[in-house]
Each structure stands twice: as C-alpha cells, then as structure tokens.
Amino acid sequence: MLREQGPRALFAKTARLTLRPFRxxxxxxxxxxxxxxxxxxxxxxxxxxxxxxVASADAEAVDWTVPAPQLADPIVxxxxxxxxxxxxxxxxxxxxxxxxxxxxxxxxERAGHRCTIYLYTSSEGQVSIPEVRAMLSSTxxxxxxxxxxxxxxxxxxxxxxTQALFATGWETAYPAYLDSSLARRFYFVxxxxxxxxxxxxxxxxxxxxxxxxxxxxxxxxxxxxSSAPSTA
Length: 232
Hints:
Blueprint (H helix, E strand, L loop, with lengths): L1 H4 L1 H22 L1 H16 L10 H6 L21 E6 L7 H15 L3 E6 L9 H9 L10 E4 L12 E4 L2 H9 L5 E6 L11 H4 L4 H5 L9 E5 L5
Parallel strand pairs: 1-2, 1-4, 2-3, 4-5, 5-6
C-alpha cells in the first residue's frame, strides 16, 4: 500500500483502524465493543466454515411453487409519491453494484419518493449502522441520501407504510418474498448474477431466486423486474 498509494494513504488507513474501537465505544457502548472483541477472537481461534449469502432459515422457509398469501393482492399506488423499501447486502467502499444502486435510490428521492434501506446479512456478526454511514460519507463514490438505513429483521420486516419492496440481489429475494407486508415486489437487476459464481450448486440450482427473478419480466412469486445498467 505504501508503494502504490503513498505514505499519506497508509497513515490515514492506520489512523482509521486505530480509532475504530474508540468509535464503536462512543457510538454503541462498552457492551457492543466487548461483543465485537469476543467475536473476533472466536473467528481467529476457530476453523472457518463456508457461509451462504442467504440465511438458511430463510432459504428453508421459501416455497417458490406456491405464491405467498401477502402477494395475492399487493398495494396499488395510483398517484403521489411512493414509499419504497430496498433490501440489500451491507455496502462496501469499493462495491460498484452498491454505488450504482445508491444512484438509482437518489433518482427515486429526487422524484419525490420516500426510501428506506434495509441491510440483510446471513452472518452472525453485527453490522454497525454508524460505521456504514461513516463509510458512505467518506467517499464521493456514493451519493448523499435522505433514506434511513436499518438492519432487516425477519420478525418485524419492513415498515408498514412500504408500498414497493425491492430485492437487489438473489440472496435478498428470499427476505423480500417472505416479508409479511402487502407491498408490491420488485427485483432490481444489474447483471446476470449467476455468471459471478462457479459452475456449482449456487449457479445451477433451478430453484434459486436468480433463475426465477432476473431472467423473466414477470417471474413466479409476485416479483417484477427493474433493470439497471451494469457498472462492473
């Protein structure tokens, strides 16, 4: 890093890593900091096991052959702004797919629509919303949004005012499908997702959301597609 980006970038990264525990202590308290330390120690001392992007409980709960009851009569908006919820994986600083997605959320906000972002992860580790916000504000690659950022909880789902619910990747199609709201479902497609995976079960399975939601204009299960140009 010193050779490629120079001493200033190295110093900035070192400072961020050094100050991170103090930021967590300030924003989330000593209990959260202790939990993070214990999880990190557990990760270092145990053998890593493969992790799916979708939670096993969500994958097991979905039956794509039977339309979910909440999708039978979804909300219809005839006029006025729309309350939109977006389910996505936690964004990364260099994630072009997330940056493109955030630009489209910005377009929606400029058009007068209300947006809420829900972060979905199958990891047992806790995602820090303050850290995500700090990352987003530290780079020009992400536009500034008025959207609230929350963690997705399957038990509570999206907020009740949601009228349109977007899945933004194959793993988020599961929680979007299972959510109990009457919001109309959409799938934000940026690319042919299965091409990002090796020729194995995650790519070839006929029952993955990728095969049903990103290759048809009206896939089974109540999803509609919304395409976007790829930035990859």
